[in-house]
Automatic annotation (TrEMBL):
Methyltransferase required for the conversion of demethylmenaquinol (DMKH2) to menaquinol (MKH2). The lineage of its organism: Bacteria, Bacillati, Actinomycetota, Actinomycetes, Micrococcales. This is Demethylmenaquinone methyltransferase. GO terms for molecular function: 2-methoxy-6-polyprenyl-1,4-benzoquinol methyltransferase activity; demethylmenaquinone methyltransferase activity. Keywords: Menaquinone biosynthesis, Methyltransferase, S-adenosyl-L-methionine, Transferase. CDD domains: AdoMet_MTases.
Length: 220
C-alpha cells in the first residue's frame, strides 16, 4: 500500500492536513534539536521529507522505512545529500547495533507497526545513553466539540479529497481507521515509559490532532 502511494505521498499529506504537516515537521525538528556531529535515526521516514529537515543541521541522518517504494522515492529525490542515507528497516528488528544514535525520531509511523511497544524498545536499544526520542503521531483532541469536528472531517471530507488527489484512495481509508483505533496521549506516554524511556512528556499540536512525545534514555 505504501509502495503504491510513494510518488504522491508528500503532496497528498499536505492537501489532506490543510498544510499542517509542514508545521508538525518544524515542531518535530525543533524537538529533536539536531546538531552537526550527531547521528540521528529517522524511522518511518517515508520519502525523507522529515529526514531532509534534520539533515540541514549537519547531523548524519539515517532515513529508515519498511516500504521499499518509499525508500526508492526518497533516494530519487534526496540521494545527493551527503549526510543523508536511506535504509530499508523493520521497526521491530532494526538493522543497527546497540547505542548507535544520539537521537531517534518517528513521525506518523509508530501507528503502522504491528508491535509498537517492541518498536519503542528497539529504538531504546539503538540510542546512546542520554540520547532522546521524539515521536510525532496522530492522537485524540481533548476537546469534545473539536474532536467531533475532527471526526466529521476524517469520516466525510477526507475520503472525498483523497479520491481526488491520491493514486490509492483506499490507503487513506486505512489512515482514518488507524487514527480511530490509536490510543490517546496518556496511553502512548505510558507505552514509552514501559519501554524503558525516562523523562517522558508530550505536548499537543493542532488542538490535539497530533501529539509530540519526548523522552530520554537514562545515562550509565
Amino acid at each position: 500500500m505504501f509502495d503504491e502511494v510513494a510518488p504522491g505521498y508528500d503532496r497528498t499529506n499536505t492537501v489532506l492536513s490543510l498544510g499542517n504537516d509542514q508545521l508538525w515537521r518544524i515542531a518535530t525538528t525543533r524537538a529533536v534539536a539536531p546538531r552537526a556531529g550527531q547521528r540521528i535515526l529517522d524511522l518511518a521516514a517515508g520519502t525523507g521529507a522529515s529526514s531532509v529537515s534534520l539533515a540541514k543541521s549537519g547531523a548524519e541522518v539515517v532515513a529508515a522505512d519498511f516500504s521499499p517504494g518509499m525508500i526508492a522515492e526518497g533516494r530519487r529525490r534526496h540521494g545527493g545529500i551527503p549526510n543523508l542515507t536511506f535504509v530499508q528497516a523493520d521497526a521491530t528488528a532494526l538493522p543497527f547495533g546497540d547505542e548507535e544514535f544520539d537521537a531517534v525520531t518517528m513521525s506518523f509511523g509508530l501507528r503502522n507497526v504491528n508491535d509498537p511497544k517492541k518498536a519503542l524498545r528497539e529504538l531504546l536499544r539503538v540510542t546512546k545513553p542520554g540520547g532522546r526520542i521524539v515521536v510525532c503521531e496522530f492522537s485524540h483532541p481533548p476537546s469534545r466539540a473539536f474532536n467531533g469536528l475532527y471526526r466529521f472531517y476524517n469520516d466525510r471530507i477526507l475520503p472525498t479529497v483523497a479520491k481526488a488527489v491520491s493514486s490509492n484512495a483506499e490507503a487513506y481509508d486505512y489512515l482514518n481507521e488507524s487514527i480511530k483505533d490509536w490510543p490517546d496521549q496518556r496511553t502512548l506516554s505510558g507505552w514509552v515509559r514501559e519501554a524503558g524511556w525516562t523523562d517522558v512528556a508530550y505536548r499537543n499540536l493542532s488542538f490535539g490532532i497530533v501529539a509530540l512525545h519526548r523522552a530520554r534514555k537514562s545515562g550509565r
